[in-house]
Write a structure and sequence with these properties.
The complex is a heteropentamer of chains A (about 675), B (about 140), C (about 130), D (about 350) and E (about 325). Chain A has about 675 residues and is of the alpha/beta class. Chain A is about 30% helix and about 25% strand. In chain A, α7 crosses α8. Chain C folds into 2 domains: about 100 residues, Fumarate Reductase Iron-sulfur Protein, Chain B, domain 2 (Orthogonal Bundle); about 30 residues, no CATH class. The chains are: A alpha/beta (about 675), B alpha/beta (about 140), C mainly alpha (about 130), D alpha+beta (about 350), E alpha/beta (about 325).
Chain lengths: ~675, ~140, ~130, ~350, ~325
């Protein structure tokens, strides 16, 4: 049995004005377990707190009930008081007789009656309280960044700069991501390669950073501070450590007709290839689907020309297991497929291209060496039509498009239009838009320059259909301002395709037990206050995997995620919330119902040996809650039919005792 | 006892992050609601076990209301979605057994909705009062 | 004004279209093959109905110019379905008229080798109560 | 011997219920019969027996024993007992009538159970002879003649009349009150019925089941019989057999916290339950096999050992009909006793 | 009338026992009267020849026994599964209640099982034999010399009248042909109750549940109720009780029991089959199933292993508890 002390606060006249505090403290004296009951003007004041501390000593109290303002106000205060008095802070319960009693009821009699009942409920609960001690867990001081685009690169660099080791896992043969494919960047028009490749080199040279390129995460176990991750290093058939990236093998490779994914299939590469000149790591990779040697054992030319002897046709996928304290997701985005947009004739005409393809066409390292040409005939295009919001803000057909705004298209389209007009003044450039969205520093100015200085023709309206006819593209569109239908004979059409999260994100989210929205973007822990954290502790978000973002935003979020990671890794131990779920192994039947509802993946299962009544032993699967991960919502406690799962601090018995006290 | 004196006993389970704070805000703004509403704080609306609800009715409650964060706003990301399903099923079952459906309710009240909290409680108390005492889920032993 | 409000609700009910979903991109009008024939264009139908400006639509021949090809419905990124709005406005107009503008008896005279049968069926539907 | 023509049987019931509450088997909508209070228009069920036995009248499933009221830190003890009123349980079969002998030995031996004793004192048992025993019946195994039931009053129902005969003072007193509805008669019709029933008894599938291998003193012999494993393996551990059994008499005493005090009550318990006789150290029978064995050893060995050879089973057949997996005392007797019944 | 015979099953079992695939057989053991079968473990073909039975009274669902039996048995257990049993089998696997590797499941077709209480309602007590001839049962009694013929379809168990599926969703081997998922009228009775007024529904359930004797047969027979310790047996749970002390306790037990199996209940009907008081408990479970189907889309527990039960799942667009009632006409 507890020895409970009850302390009724007047809160000046805030409580005492409508609640007879004396009557409350008298009434609660008779409750089971209560050995001391008093009231005072300001319980939260130093004098009030001292009163509690003295009473604890004098009456050997084991539990404290404070009838006062909301626990959201002073629960922490009184817990500290209890700790100072030498009892466990979780032996304190607050009866909210101000916000939920004296302030909402006018009549002294009603207010007092209710305050007594709320006090009784708190006493009933505290009688069942047990001392709770927050759990501690160590922190592995290493971070994992999944994805090696600009988001991953920036996060890794920032974490490494703070002195913590970081590993980057990138599924492509090189880091760099989408930014490496871009030509210029808005709104300043610096060349993407010029600002990105130095960072890639930094990554390569940073002693704290390891790059696992051509690799994927295949399994994640553990929890914040203690993740166990398995990384699959796909066989690239080239020994990374020996390859110098000289490119001799690439030159000699006879398989020359492999569509080059870096240039979005607009030209070809060899079966052995280095994606681009500044690739990091700059090592060759053999495409097993294209290589004759790997397919039917005939060729072996590259091995013969490789001076370093780096070619290894027998290389196997390698699995690496590593421990991490924090994981950053930076899986990025892709443009959506244009196959289903029949009206824009993307599948019918080579001269209807996406904006990313346009980037490659204008890039000096691209398939046309930076010369803007029509992909169909290599001719110089004169009339160019840009169509915005292709698949963005598209609610009607979920298979085709996305309901959200892709955010970056307005700006890059303005950039493309401007650059085209700048380099080829003989062109006529139309941009069809629904809205031009330019919230960002120097963004609107940039767009206006395209119109005012470069003479890009912005048309408010949408393209309804495009029909290839001869070597022209018949573009039919509406001009809403002029209230007319436009018919343009275009040479080239550029579609601003919506962007979507990378396909690898969904299975990754499952592995990480991190939540996602219906569009497969990772959900943040709080949309305003915790934008770079996933609800799953220890998992952080960087870049477009969380939502559409441009480069400046991505980089700032990458830095923010890094700061959060550094904050976590800087700790030696993590203190948990002690009000967490706990499974009674003797009652648990291992059915996994609780794990299904846990938003944090805090519940795992283990096979445990139990001694049975008939002196045999039995191995049963039982749930184990990781207190470092559990946040204490209690969803599992209701999902568990046997009641094996209970929540410390809000136990079934405690809540039922409160119900009983209120209803009697 | 006169009929018009009858005051229903109402148990309100409020999640710590939104609805309990909403109730506090109602207090801050001095928005009155019947004193017969007694609040029990739970970390999340998904902590509310159907057994607690039946227990309250057994012990003499006339109405039980569960308040949580608005769907999508759950502090624990998905707790209130489970509440929504569980309570939809449970309340439908109570109705199936002939227990008045107006005695149970789920309401989403955010920390900013003090006025909604008070209005909800006033409305609920009134509806429950109109039904009269809970006879169908009571345990007469508790009346002794 | 009240009448306009009534008509607006009526058209929304008849067509099942929610004009507030329109984001005014103009793709419907961009794709419309009868655009140049029409005084009011598909996107204007949606926006004018939403604003309760229905009388001008009722008095315009545009309601008969719509081919009901449904290209606008197919292309609309928001699923607004302008053709259904046009159809609803047309129905209101037809209902206001005393007599049918075309009867079954008129059809035999129109049949010739060049006129597609579907056009006649469509016309019959459009010009009849 | 007295008789009452069947067309006047409602008058008979009306007359009985003037002096005491009358309970009799009535048909339920679900097809099963159960005891219900008679009031005008309530018909006596033609079913062979009720699902729940009439032991409920004397040893109810739930029964308040006393109450405690708390106010502040004081506790008041309230005696909730009150004098019972007279009541008549009508239509009890011979097997169930015999069950009261078994229950009496438990509850009426010193120290007497005052709750049970009170109800026995006020309850009048009117039995009804069986004419169509079922395939599940094996009362004759325990020496019971279903055609000659015991009780305060025995009755026989024929095609046109109900024959009555008082066996005890209580029974005689009740019959005297019924006066004009009854008329004196010979016992020819009853004897004829008894003969007919006896003939059917010879056809019952379980007629040869006997208790030769059971009874006091057999503990050592039977306790470790390996067949218990096999017999108990399908037992689900539910309490159906116990709760439909007319002779099972175990109960648990529990406190119910009302919020303002405590109601102490007793309720039937089942030795098949894992929580049965749980004590501070835990449970004494830890596996379903032990619990299963206990139930049958008690009925067939321990009880007769302490009660002059009287078995704690009356062969009513309820458990045979109701066990979800059809494991029952007959199967146990045949297997453990090596008695194949043929 | 079952298409598969006792002899075929014994032959199959003997073969599997002989070639060492399985070490024992979980099957129906013969009883005293032809209709009372007991789940029995047979270790040899000889045991089966004397004690095994397969008839129109083999309705009992054995899936639950696998939880305990797989723990105790060396080698594989052969179990014969009727289509409806396979759903419970899968559901138990979903909840990791037994090791799939320790079971050899043979799917057997089922033509619907007979309900002995329905036969007794027609013929009365004192049944001395029941023989199946085609689609008819010939019943003889201890009293009448004239045998009574009953159409098998007239005495089908409730769950078989409303059979939801003749398709096996789990097996290692199938005997006979597989059937299809059926369009049953199993929710009709629930709908009939839903159409009543609340007062009528209350009266209906008050009457039904008042018969409850809390024998726990419904729970203990239920393949979804495999908790190590049920809350109603656990003194620490606060709701433990051994008796239906009053109408509240009756409701509490049955509401919570139905809630705990909601979304996990395969609608096998064991609860109603075993109830000694003939309470239509399956209606409570079906109410949950019907609601879940209507609120969240059709879901059949046990249709596949590993599916996530509706009450431990959600979508952001789920209907509100308050809308549950508005949507009814």
């Amino acid at each position: 049995m507890q020895r409970v002390g009850v302390f009724v606060c007047w809160c000046g006249s805030n409580i005492a004005g409508t609640v007879d505090v004396q009557a409350v403290s008298e009434a609660l004296k008779n409750e089971p377990g209560v050995v001391f009951s008093t009231n005072y003007q300001y319980m939260c004041s130093q004098a009030g707190q001292d009163m509690i501390k003295n009473a604890v000593k004098e009456h050997r109290l084991t539990g404290i009930v404070v009838c006062s303002c909301s626990p959201r106000m002073h629960e922490a205060t009184f817990r500290k008081t209890a700790a100072a008095a030498g009892i466990n802070p979780y032996m304190v319960e607050i009866a909210n007789i101000r916000e939920q009693c004296s302030w909402v009821h006018k009549d002294m009699l009603t207010g007092t009656e209710k305050a007594i009942i709320l006090g009784k409920a708190a006493v009933a609960k505290v009688n069942l309280n047990t001392p709770l001690i927050p759990g501690e867990s160590p922190v592995t001081k290493r971070a994992l960044v999944i994805g090696g685009g600009i988001a991953g690169i920036q996060t890794a660099l920032d974490i490494a700069d703070a002195g913590f080791p970081v590993d980057i896992v990138e599924k492509q043969p090189t880091i760099g991501g989408k930014m490496a494919q871009l030509d210029k960047t808005f709104p300043t028009l610096d060349c993407a390669a010029c600002i990105l490749t130095p960072k890639m080199v930094d990554v390569a040279q940073n002693e704290n950073i390891r790059i696992f390129s051509y690799s994927e995460v295949t399994e994640v176990k553990g929890f914040v501070g203690n993740f166990d991750v398995t990384i699959k290093k796909k066989a690239r058939f080239v020994n990374e450590d020996i390859c110098t990236g000289c490119g001799a093998c690439v030159e000699k490779c006879p398989m020359k007709k492999v569509p080059n994914e870096f240039n979005l299939g607009m030209d070809n590469r060899h079966a052995i290839y280095i994606p681009f000149a500044q690739a990091v790591p700059k090592v060759a990779t053999i495409d097993p689907n294209a290589c004759n040697m790997l397919k039917n054992g005939k060729c072996g030319l590259c091995a013969r020309v490789c001076a370093a002897g780096a070619i290894d046709y027998k290389q196997k996928d390698q699995f690496i297991e590593e421990k991490y304290g924090a994981i950053v997701v930076a899986t990025g985005f892709n443009p959506i497929s244009m196959e289903k947009f029949d009206e824009y004739a993307y599948s019918q005409s080579k001269d209807v291209i996406t904006s990313l393809e346009f980037e490659r066409l204008t890039n000096a390292a691209g398939p046309s060496a930076g010369k803007l040409i029509r992909p169909s005939d290599g001719k110089h295009p004169h009339t160019i039509v840009f169509v915005q919001c292709v698949g963005s803000r598209c609610e009607s057909c979920a298979e085709k498009g996305k309901e959200y705004c892709s955010k970056i298209c307005c700006m890059y389209t303005a950039k493309h239009a401007m650059l085209t007009r700048d380099k080829y003044p003989d062109t006529e450039v139309y941009v069809f838009y629904i809205d031009v969205r330019t919230p960002g520093k120097n963004f609107d100015e940039f767009y206006r320059r395209a119109v005012e200085e470069y003479g890009v023709k912005y048309v408010k309206g949408m393209v309804g259909k495009i029909v290839p006819e001869g070597d022209k593209l018949k573009v039919q569109a509406s001009d809403l301002i002029a209230n007319r239908q436009l018919h343009i004979d275009a040479d080239l059409v550029v579609l601003a395709a919506a962007i979507e999260p990378d396909k690898s994100a969904r299975p990754l989210a499952t592995m990480l037990t991190a939540s996602m929205d219906t569009n497969d973007f990772f959900t943040e822990a709080h949309p305003k206050l915790r934008p770079v954290e996933s609800p799953t502790a220890g998992v952080f978000l960087s870049g477009a995997c969380q939502g559409p973002k441009d480069i400046p935003e991505t980089v700032s979020q990458a830095g923010a995620a890094a700061a959060k990671v550094i904050g976590l890794l800087a700790k030696d131990k993590l203190m948990g919330n002690p009000c967490v779920a706990q499974s009674d192994e003797l009652m648990c039947n291992g059915c996994s119902t609780c794990a299904n509802v846990c938003p944090y993946g805090a519940i795992s299962y283990e096979d445990k040996e139990f001694r049975m009544p008939d002196r045999t032993t039995k191995i049963r699967r039982v749930a184990a809650v990781n207190p470092a991960v559990c946040q204490g919502c209690g969803a599992c406690t209701v999902a568990c039919p046997s009641g094996a799962m209970d929540l410390k601090g809000f136990a079934n018995s405690q809540i039922m005792a409160e119900v009983d006290a209120i209803c009697k | 006892m006169q009929v018009n004196e009858y005051k229903p006993l109402i148990v309100a389970f409020c999640c710590n992050w939104c609805s309990y704070a909403g109730a506090d805000l109602a207090g801050n703004n001095r928005l009155a609601y019947p004193a017969d509403v007694k609040i029990i704080r739970v970390p999340c609306s998904c902590r509310v076990n159907p057994m607690f609800i039946l227990r309250a009715f057994q012990r003499g409650a006339d109405g039980v209301i569960i308040c949580g964060c608005h769907p999508g706003d759950c502090h624990y990301t998905s707790g209130n979605y489970y509440t929504r399903r569980r309570m939809a099923a449970l309340f439908s079952m109570l109705d199936f057994l002939g227990i008045e459906r107006e005695r149970t309710r789920v309401e989403w009240v955010s920390a900013a909705e003090g006025a909604k909290f008070a209005a909800t409680m006033n409305d609920f108390a009134q509806k429950v009062a109109a039904l009269g005492e809970n006879k169908r889920l009571e345990d007469l032993r508790c009346k002794k | 004004m009240e009448n306009n409000q009534y008509l607006r609700e009526e058209i929304i009910r008849m067509s099942g279209v929610n004009p507030t979903k329109c984001m005014k991109c103009g793709k419907c009008s961009g794709t419309c093959p009868a655009y140049d024939e029409m005084e009011y264009h598909p996107h204007q139908f949606v926006s004018m109905v939403d604003n309760g400006e229905i009388e001008p639509l009722l008095n315009s021949t545009s309601i008969y110019k719509c081919l009901s090809c449904f290209a606008c419905i197919e292309r609309c990124p928001r699923g607004v379905e302008p053709a259904k709005v046009v159809e609803a406005v047309r129905l209101i107009a037809i209902r206001r008229q005393g007599a049918n503008r075309m009867t079954a008896n008129d059809i035999p005279a129109m049949v010739d080798e060049d006129t597609p049968q579907q056009l006649l069926v469509s016309a019959f539907r459009k010009y009849t109560k | 011997m007295l008789k009452c023509s069947l067309d006047k049987i409602q008058n008979l019931f009306a007359e009985i219920s003037k002096s005491a509450k009358l309970y009799l088997p009535v048909d339920g909508k679900d097809g099963g019969a159960s005891y219900g209070e008679w009031s005008e228009g309530v018909e006596w069920s033609g079913a062979l027996n009720t699902t729940k036995s009439p032991k409920d009248f004397f040893f109810p499933q739930t029964e308040d024993l006393m109450a405690f009221k708390t106010a502040g830190k004081s506790i008041e003890i309230i005696d909730t007992r009150s004098e019972s009123e007279d009541f008549v349980v009508f239509g009890v079969r011979a097997c169930d009538a015999k069950s009261f002998d078994i229950l009496d030995r438990v509850f009426l031996s010193e120290p007497q159970d005052s709750f049970y004793a009170m109800k026995r004192k006020h309850g009048i048992i009117v039995t009804a002879a069986c004419t169509k025993p079922s395939e599940t019946c094996f009362c004759q195994t325990f020496g019971i003649d279903p055609a000659s039931p015991a009780g305060d009053i025995s009755t026989w129902k024929t095609a046109d009349a109900l024959y009555l005969q008082a066996n005890t003072e209580k029974g005689t007193a009740l019959l005297e009150k019924l006066g004009a509805i009854l008329e004196e008669c010979s016992d020819d019709a009853v004897n004829a019925q008894k003969e007919k029933t006896a003939a059917i008894m010879q056809k019952l599938p379980l007629k040869d089941l006997n208790t030769d291998d059971f009874g006091g003193g057999k503990t050592q012999e039977l306790f470790n019989n390996p067949a218990w494993d096999e017999l108990s393996q399908s037992c689900l551990g539910c309490g159906t057999c116990t709760f439909v059994c007319p002779t099972c008499q175990c109960y648990d005493i529990k406190d119910f916290n009302t919020g303002n005090g405590v109601i102490r009550y007793r309720c039937w318990d089942s030795c098949m339950y894992s929580e049965f006789t749980r004590m501070a150290h835990g449970n004494n029978r830890l596996t379903q096999k032990e619990r299963f064995r206990q139930r049958f050893m008690h009925k067939l060995v321990y009880y007769p050992e302490n009660n002059d050879g009287l078995f704690s089973c009356v062969g009513c057949g309820r458990c045979l009909a109701k066990c979800p997996i059809s494991m029952n005392i007959v199967k146990v007797m045949k297997k453990i006793g090596g008695n194949k019944g043929e | 009338m079952q298409k598969i015979t006792r002899e075929q099953l014994i032959e199959k079992a003997s073969e599997l026992l002989a070639n060492g695939t399985v070490s024992c057989v979980l099957g129906w053991g013969a009883g005293e009267f032809g209709y009372d079968v007991t789940p029995t473990v047979f270790k040899t073909a000889e045991e089966m020849k004397t004690g095994f039975v397969f008839s129109d009274f083999c309705g009992a669902n054995f899936s639950k026994y696998l939880v305990a039996k797989t723990q105790k048995t060396e080698g594989k257990i052969l179990v014969f599964l009727k289509p409806c049993d396979t759903y419970s089998f899968n559901q138990l696997l979903t909840e990791h209640r037994f090791d799939r590797e320790k079971v050899y499941a043979v799917g057997i077709p089922c033509e619907g099982m007979a309900d002995i209480s329905k036969i007794k309602a027609i013929c009365g007590e004192g049944i001395s034999s029941i023989t199946a001839e085609g689609d008819t049962f010939i019943v003889t009694t201890l009293y009448d010399d004239e045998p009574i013929a009953i159409e098998a379809s007239a005495v089908l168990a409730e769950r078989c009248v409303n059979c939801k599926s003749k398709k096996h969703v789990a097996y290692d081997e199938l005997m006979g042909e597989d059937g299809d998922v059926l369009d049953s009228g199993r929710f009709d009775e629930v709908a009939r109750l839903e159409a009543m007024t609340p007062d009528e529904r209350f009266a209906f359930w008050q009457n039904e549940l008042s018969r409850c004797i809390r024998c726990n047969a419904c729970r203990d027979a239920c393949p979804a109720c495999t908790c190590e310790k049920c809350v109603f047996d656990n003194p620490k749970s606060g709701v433990e009780n051994k008796s239906p002390a009053n109408s509240f306790e009756e409701k509490l037990f049955h509401i919570i029991r139905a809630f705990h199996v909601a979304g996990r209940c395969t609608d096998c009907g064991e609860c109603s089959r075993v109830c000694p008081q003939n309470i239509p408990l399956h209606l409570l479970n079906r109410k949950f199933i019907k609601d879940i189907n209507e609120f969240y889309g059709d879901y059949q527990a046990g249709a596949e292993v590993g599916s996530r039960a509706p009450l431990v799942n959600y979508t952001t667009a789920d209907l509100e508890p308050g809308e549950v009632f508005n949507r009814e006409g």
